[in-house]
């Protein structure tokens, strides 16, 4: 039987629609059965065309995506999906567990990354954490509907960032979580460990380099509208600081 804490965690994401994309039918069956027993509606696909057919039937709340797929691979799929509006969160799975592979996946916009073979319970914990963060972003959280800083406007409900010129800047889920972590704690030095926890949750086993990569990407996007490196300042041997004053709206 589920304990009280586990039951509460299940209820938080109950009914979420999850798409499992993996060309191994055994893994698809094990994962879909396990997640299904914990209250999730799981659909499966063996490759990109099957995935597209599932998505045509309606939006999903989360995609669990294998890197090594026939035809269009998982990294290419991740890159394509995360550049679209209202992209679902993505957890990537890969038999390649090297740091460089994980960095590439996170840099492309994946919300989390697990090396295969993984324990289904660990995947379940990651699914819960990613869905919880997505729900917090949708509901607006502590900041309310949004905030303004240095001429920029961040809408936490629509997950929309507008530059001082009024141009919408597309953010991956990971970049959005990181920017939110900064604007909730402006003008404070945040270590990499703190940013990992604020942006990805206390259960994340991501690493310092992943934060550096996403900060670099976020700075480039802010630079396009002016002031990216000034807004996110590197504090030598300590971490990073979001320098702008934030007005909650």
TrEMBL record:
Write down which residues bear the modification named 4-aspartylphosphate.
66
Instruction: Kindly give the InterPro entries that the UniProt entry links to this protein.
Output: CheY-like_superfamily (IPR011006), OmpR/PhoB-type_DNA-bd (IPR001867), Sig_transdc_resp-reg_C-effctor (IPR016032), Sig_transdc_resp-reg_receiver (IPR001789), WalR-like (IPR039420), WH-like_DNA-bd_sf (IPR036388)
Main location as per UniProt = cytoplasm
Q: What is this protein called?
A: Regulatory protein VirG
Which Pfam family is an annotated match for this chain, by its short name? Response_reg
Q: Where would you find this protein in the cell?
A: Cytoplasm
Provide the residue ranges listed under DNA-binding region in this record.
144-244
Q: Which SUPFAM superfamilies match?
A: C-terminal effector domain of the bipartite response regulators (SSF46894), CheY-like (SSF52172)
Q: Classify the source by domain of life.
A: Bacteria
Q: Please report the stretch or stretches of sequence annotated as the Response regulatory domain.
A: 17-131
Sorted keywords for this record are: Cytoplasm, DNA-binding, Phosphoprotein, Transcription, Transcription regulation, Two-component regulatory system
The root-end lineage is: Bacteria, Pseudomonadati, Pseudomonadota, Alphaproteobacteria, Caulobacterales
The segment(s) forming the OmpR/PhoB-type domain are: 144-244
């Amino acid at each position: 039987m589920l304990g009280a804490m586990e039951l509460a965690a299940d209820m938080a994401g109950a009914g979420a629609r999850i798409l499992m994309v993996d060309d191994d039918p055994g893994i698809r069956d094990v994962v879909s059965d396990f997640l299904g027993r914990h209250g999730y509606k799981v659909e499966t696909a063996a490759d990109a065309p099957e995935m597209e057919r599932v998505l045509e039937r309606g939006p999903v709340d989360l995609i669990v995506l294998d890197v090594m797929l026939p035809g269009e691979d998982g990294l290419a799929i991740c890159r394509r999906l995360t550049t679209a509006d209202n992209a679902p969160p993505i957890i990537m799975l890969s038999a390649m567990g090297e740091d460089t592979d994980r960095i590439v996946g996170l840099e492309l916009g994946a919300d989390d990354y697990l090396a295969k073979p993984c324990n289904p319970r660990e995947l379940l914990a990651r699914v819960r954490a990613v869905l919880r963060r997505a729900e917090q972003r949708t509901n607006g959280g502590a900041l309310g509907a949004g905030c303004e800083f240095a001429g920029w406007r961040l809408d936490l409900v629509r997950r929309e960032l507008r530059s001082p010129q009024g141009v919408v800047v597309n953010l991956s889920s990971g970049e959005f979580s990181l920017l939110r972590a900064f604007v909730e704690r402006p003008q404070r030095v945040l270590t990499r460990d703190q940013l990992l926890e604020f942006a990805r949750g206390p259960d994340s086993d991501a690493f310092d380099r992943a934060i550096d990569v996403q900060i670099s990407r976020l700075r480039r996007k802010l630079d396009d509208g002016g002031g990216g490196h000034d807004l996110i300042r590197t504090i030598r041997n300590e971490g990073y600081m979001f320098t702008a004053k934030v007005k909650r709206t």
